[in-house]
Specification:
- The protein has five helices and seven strands, in the order ααβαββαββαββ.
- The protein is α+β, with helices and mostly antiparallel strands.
- α2 packs parallel to α5 and α4 packs antiparallel against α5.
- The termini are far apart.
- The site of adenosine-5'-diphosphate has 18 residues, from α4 and α5.
Length: about 260
């Protein structure tokens, strides 16, 4: 009948549309993978010569080629600090492309939060000492052992802590860990008494290259990639990073993640 014929042709058209969309999805995925691969290769190719530049700069700064005049030393110090900034950007882009390309695997293991935080503190010790701020940690009594990716949790906390120190001029930083039994999640928070963040910027700063102040004359160093990496790493753990802040009132960044990660 005519109706049957119309249904048939509509079905055929839908199938064709479906196939077209499927092909487009594959093409998009391939383009995205190609982009990630290109960025990964590029970052890698940049790293080798940059390490050589930094190596020679340091040799010169250490005086291996004789004493330098103060202006020479000043200029060389600028080369060194710009070179190190570039290396940081490259390493962070490499991290992001690895995550996006699915080439940053999860390494799950049993570990304790207290030991992990102790390790973070020890690593940050020189920076904490230079900051002249006090950093204390408060651990929940009933903090259980966790099954997650230790290195990723550590990288996130290191990042949050170094931001807290960078954006705080007086007062201190409080690191706290607690376990929420009802939801089975661990929360590690880093609270500072620093400059704080306006609500209008609180989402933006988790995006790639986004900083509250990105002007060439900005007062703080950094790349604007740290929090976007934290966000991606937290997602890999099945968790997230939340933020509570107000200008002049300090900020609290909290990593929430399941005590027992699920393999994806
Ligand atoms: P970076 O610190 O390298 O600029 P991030 O992605 O770690 O990059 O942070 C993005 C921006 O978020 C920072 O430039 C800063 O404007 C803001 N920010 C992050 N942490 C804090 C903090 N603890 N206090 C105030 N502002 C912060």
């Amino acid at each position: 009948s005519e109706l049957e014929a119309r249904v048939q042709s509509a079905t055929a058209e839908l199938a064709e549309q479906n196939e077209k969309l499927r092909r487009q999805a594959i093409q998009l995925e391939q383009a995205s993978a190609a982009k990630s691969q290109f960025l990964a290769n590029m970052s890698h190719e940049f790293r080798t010569p940059l390490n050589a530049i930094l190596g020679y700069t340091n040799m010169l700064l250490q005086g291996v080629s004789g004493e330098m005049t103060p202006p020479q030393r000043r200029n060389l110090t600028r080369i060194d600090s710009n070179g190190r900034h570039l290396l940081e950007v490259i390493n962070e882009i490499l991290d992001i492309t690895r995550i996006e390309a699915g080439r940053m695997p999860l390494h799950l293991s049993d570990f304790g939060i207290p030991e992990l935080l102790q390790e973070v503190m020890a690593e940050m010790d020189p920076i904490i000492a230079r900051s002249k701020l006090t950093v204390d940690t408060r651990l929940d009594e009933g903090l259980p052992g966790v099954w997650s990716d230790r290195q990723k949790v550590k990288q996130i906390v290191l990042n949050l802590l170094s931001n807290a120190l960078k954006f705080t001029h007086e007062g201190g930083v409080h690191v706290a860990a607690e376990y929420q039994n009802a939801t089975g999640t661990v929360a590690i928070s880093v609270k500072d008494t620093g400059i704080g963040i306006d609500v209008s910027n609180q989402e933006k700063i988790f995006e790639d290259f986004q900083q509250v102040d990105s002007s060439p004359t900005r007062a703080y160093g950094g790349t604007g990639l740290g929090l976007s990496i934290c966000r991606r790493l937290a997602a890999m753990l099945g968790g997230r990073v939340s933020l509570q802040s107000a200008p002049g009132q300090g900020s609290t960044f909290t990593l929430h993640f399941p005590r027992r990660a699920r393999r994806t």
